[in-house]
UniProtKB/TrEMBL annotation:
Cited InterPro entries: Asn/Gln_tRNA_amidoTrase-B-like, GatB_Yqey_C_2, YqeY/Aim41, YqeY/Aim41_N
PANTHER family per the UniProt record, alphabetical: ALTERED INHERITANCE OF MITOCHONDRIA PROTEIN 41, MITOCHONDRIAL
Taxonomic source organism: Clostridium sartagoforme AAU1
GO MF: carbon-nitrogen ligase activity, with glutamine as amido-N-donor
One Pfam family here: YqeY
Protein name (Swiss-Prot/TrEMBL): GatB/Yqey domain-containing protein
Amino acid sequence: MLKEELKKNEIAAMKARDKATVSVLRLVNSEIKAFEVNERKDISDEDVLRIIEKQIKQLKEALQYAIQLNDNDKINEGNFAINLLTPYLPAQLADEEVETMLREIITNGNYASSDMGKIMKEIMPKVNGKFDKSKINPMVKKILG
């Protein structure tokens, strides 16, 4: 399970005295624990992936801000954390693969531009955790164009 892998890696980083890695993994593990406490259930790998995705998204936003401020320390920290967490995510789909999936969904469902919600509902489970969701809407508009 992904939760145990994250915890083992945090402990290994502690033993290696790798403060930067410990800091990033501790943050993710605390989010996992908070989820379990709030939901009163054991966390699934899918939920762990959502937490990691959320952390990476927040790190990327902070990284953009650090770049604007030209803060090299924060830029390095952000890049380190993103690079540390990214391997925990499933292999990412290429834009072309998702575009092919969308074309297939639109053709098979005979969807028009007014069916955006139906298209999104059908594609999201297929790309969950494997693709940047913010890219999907523009792709659909381009295909339906």
